[in-house]
Write a structure and sequence with these properties.
2 copies of one chain form a homodimer. Chain A has 209 residues and is mainly alpha-helical. Chain A is built from 9 helices and no strands. Chain A folds into 2 domains: 49 residues, Orthogonal Bundle (Arc Repressor Mutant, subunit A), CATH 1.10.10; 157 residues, Tetracycline Repressor, domain 2 (Orthogonal Bundle), CATH 1.10.357. In chain A, α1 crosses α2, α6 crosses α7 and α6 crosses α9. Chain A is elongated and about 60 Å long. Chains A and B meet through α6, α7, α8 and α9 of A and α6, α7, α8 and α9 of B.
Chain lengths: 209, 209
């Protein structure tokens, strides 16, 4: 089954690259090193990927698409938009645990994005996508009357920025606070600022618990 | 006047380092390069600074202490805490313009902070300081009755995280949004979520203007 073997090779490369990037950083990791750790030839590597940039982008894509599925599943069962956003915030602790290895890589990529237009494009795409997703939800909340009037993309950018800020601080200073729980607190404060009814079942550390 | 000359040398080094770090990145810039650009000897450099790390930390410190002064000046004239925080948010556009050159360096430093305990300490210190500063303001707001009961440090961490997230996205995608103005919108949403009276004079893009 050559196709199965090819998929296995691809998985081996992705797994070895994840470990090497996390340990040594993106810049310091070479394709040769990834191949050695994965136990594959350079030919096999370049059959699957054009470059280590592409490997990194693929890893990010897989991480984010797993996240998207979780977000959509959590939002689907909610009764209205504030509840959907509040449910979404509940995945934060798990996301933070996952992201601890990823964030230093993001930082490195961000830095490169300042210099390389192609990497820049790939780096900003997820932010745009999440901003559009949350803008759609906020628009729906305004229509259903669960949120007050506001330009939806303004609210969405603020939600995304809060998440980015918490993720980055959480990566820098993991023991400094309960970052995952803070996402819930922050989303709740923003939702209340956006006019969501505060008599909801959203007890959190804001209540001093 | 040897003391004046010594101060001038120090300024020349800081100025040359700022330009070199911004252009080439922190890793890629050597002490020799900074000395050449500043027109000073290595001996003069090491008279003032132990390492390029120290130069960077000094640059950050100067940037932040300028920021602190602005924040305190703006907050001093406010009638209550929500107004003080709203005033503080108004410096954001200027901070964002300043930070555009600094943020790629911060990213690089953050990445190093993940590996070097001394750099880590220097990197997290400003976050702790701002969190304490804003926690103090929120505590005052709760006492004066302009904000509702909550653990002040939770609210403070969320304010700081929002600012960090907006700064980083603003650095990555400067043309993507009016990031400086978004700080005001975000602070306003959080303050309203924290129970601040919404009949204030805080018109912003949230009103569709």
């Amino acid at each position: 089954m050559p196709q199965k073997r090819s998929l296995e090779t691809r998985e081996k490369i992705l797994k070895a690259a994840t470990a090497a990037f996390s340990r040594d950083g993106f810049d310091a990791t070479g394709v040769a090193e990834i191949c050695a750790a994965a136990g594959v030839s350079k030919g096999a590597f370049y059959h699957h990927f054009q470059s280590k940039q592409e490997v990194f982008l693929k890893l990010t894509e897989e991480w984010l698409s797993g996240l998207d599925q979780q977000i959509q599943r959590l939002a689907a069962s909610a009764e209205d938009v504030p509840q959907a956003l509040w449910q979404t915030a509940k995945i934060a602790p798990a996301v933070f645990a996952d992201a601890r290895g990823q964030v230093p890589l993001f930082l490195e990529f961000w830095r490169q994005a300042n210099r390389d237009p192609q990497i820049w494009q790939a780096t900003v795409a997820p932010y745009h996508r999440y901003t559009e997703y949350f803008a759609g939800m906020i628009r729906q909340g305004i229509e259903e009357g669960s949120l007050r009037e506001m330009p939806p993309e303004v609210g969405a950018r603020i939600l995304v920025s809060l998440a980015v800020g918490l993720l980055l601080q959480g990566a820098l200073d993991p023991e400094g606070a309960d970052w995952g729980t803070l996402v819930g607190d922050g989303v709740r404060l923003l939702l209340e600022g956006m006019g969501a009814n505060s008599k909801r079942e959203w007890r959190s550390t804001l209540d001093g618990e």
